[in-house]
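Lab meeting tomorrow. Please check the following:
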Amino acid sequence: MSALICGSLAFDTITNFPGRFSQQILPDQVHILNVSFLVPTLRREFGGCAGNIAYTLHALGGQPVVLAMLGQDGADYRARLAGWGADTSLVGEQPVEYTAQAIIITDEDNNQITAFHPGAMSLAHEMRVPAPGARSDIAIGIIAPDGRTAMAEHAQQMFVAGIPFIFDPGQQLPQFDGAEHRHMLGMARWVAVNDYEGRMLCERTGETLQATSLRPNIDGVVVTLAEQGCDVWQRGVCTRVAGVAADAVVDPTGCGDAFRAALLYGLERGWTLQRCAELGNRVGALKIACRGGQNHRIDRAAMGC
């Protein structure tokens, strides 16, 4: 069976700052902020949440179907996706816009500052989730960060199509108000956020993570906590799933996406949410030791899948 991945495809320009942002930004001078970071290293990678999730899901043995929008410069990305087995039949191309671009600066504490140009991603809503019954192979899905309209419409379309999905608002969380978040939570089966996003989601919706996990349609809320692992909320009860020590801490870009791919892989196979989270922690520790979101290699036997 397949997993439908709705989200962004982007080119990432990744740089490293050999210092700490906190030492360069004066809190009492932010009203006249004017800083420059010398970044001696620079790489261009294939990225975007949908691409990163699809990469890891395929490496785990899953079958990703990507629904996203590329721009006029996206031919190489489409070829890359198809080259390692992703279904690209729902990937569109805009002839005028550029593919989404992210410029990421990471400091020595793994804090990140990102500038993001959405480009063709803003028109991702032009691609639609298959109508009910049109794709019987799709067993599960995820709404990952994408264009605002696309996230709202694709969530509604997945719900109508009867595809259980993970709601992963990510960096697009501030684009929706409380009523909009509550509406999407009412359609989702699972929720995945990091600690900061979890706090913001609670602020926007006016309900706690515990309350969200008690919604009748929600089978679980997962809150990632970096090296500390993650919290799994189910039916009002929180379980801490311990983190996995990484062999090296090289680049956090795409770690959250790798974790979400593990959730998709396990949930499709009927695993408990805790077992899915344990796999996600192992995959995240593997990914952080590699640069970029799509360069890590997975030994499926060693991962227990």
Notes: The chain has nine helices and 13 strands. The domain at 2-25+42-303 is CATH 3.40.1190.20 (UDP-N-acetylmuramoyl-L-alanine:D-glutamate ligase).
